[in-house]
Amino acid sequence: MKRTIILALIILPMLMFGQIHDTVTIEYCYQQAQKNYPLARQVDLLGKSTELRICNLNKNWLPQMNLNGYTSLQSAVTDVVIVLPANLPAIGMPPLSKDWYKLTLDVNQSIYDGNLTAYQKKIENSNLQTDEKNVQIELYKLKDRINQVYFSIFYSQENEALLNNTKSLLEARFKEVQSAVTNGTMLASNVDALQVELYKTDQELAELRIDRTSAFQVLSELTSVSIPETSHLLLPQATLTSMVFENSRLEYQLFDLQQDRVGLMKNMVNTKLNPKIYAFGQLGYGRPGFNMLSNDFTPWWIFGAKLNWNIWNWNQNKNEKKIYDIQNDILKTQKETFDKNTRIEADRGLSDIVKLTEMLRKDEDILALREKITHTAASQMDNGVITSSEYISRLNEETQARLALELHQIQLVKAKLSYLFIMGKL
User: In this prediction, what percent of the chain has a pLDDT beyond 70?
Assistant: First the structure.
């Protein structure tokens, strides 16, 4: 009893794991692709990069310190000449050294930078949002690529199942005809005709398997998950809640972010004419010090504040703003162009949906009639009224009608998903 329970505990998870991976949905492929695709890791990297840039910008408010050294040898120095009356003794001045030495520590502290740093941080955040949106757009495009591969596999599987069913019918019919030939009630050519058709069916099945293997490899690469060829793909359930055009594409949002960034850069131009106030200080040691008439090495210090105000830059700001206005207009035209192209694609997508829906209605009627014709042809061949070639033609026509129905059903679901992708709602 204990052994049975242990075996059950081991086998059940294995069976459950196998069932999970035997059935694959398109939603699962979407999730795995967006989670595992190398580009997805870029979002975190972009955030870290922006965080470091903003950290550096915050340091604009910290004191900036520079250590400077200076030495020189000059041809002449200040010579002080004092003219005294003849009856007074001359005043002697020691000669000044012609070699000078200075070592200084200069400190600058920004007090008001005209809002330059504040705008730079806003632009960095805007750049981050734009870059993240670009990544989201590329990841969203993966869904369309997955759709192409997924439906090619799905159609291949459905087609293979249908061909295997046709092959079973041919094999059964082959045995019946072979028996009739042995009994002398049917010509041997009928057996040959059925054998040729069986070879053709095997050929089509081999071609389908090769294409399916390649498609599964592509799907595994896109999702970064090993999806075996034995997996069964489920047909998605695509529902259109509205046929009214509503653009929810991420590209549309990207244009808004880009326009916001241009607006920030335009406003930042004003900071060039804002006054900038700094505090400064200098600690020094050298010869000469502030007393230019001393040959001694002395320390010194100086502290103060300064104002830097560019009150006129010959309309450079005005021209820069015009440039940003032009860039904004360019973005508007790109946005309008994208919107128009999206509308055209959406209209084409709706047309495909309507067309396929109508074709499916006719496919069902055609298939029902083809089944009746094939059933009658089978009875006629059994009674020697028609040859096996004529029966094969009727069977192929039924198979083609069934394939058309299956294909249009798959194409309709794919068309709906494509429409949702175009609208940005997939």
Answer: 94
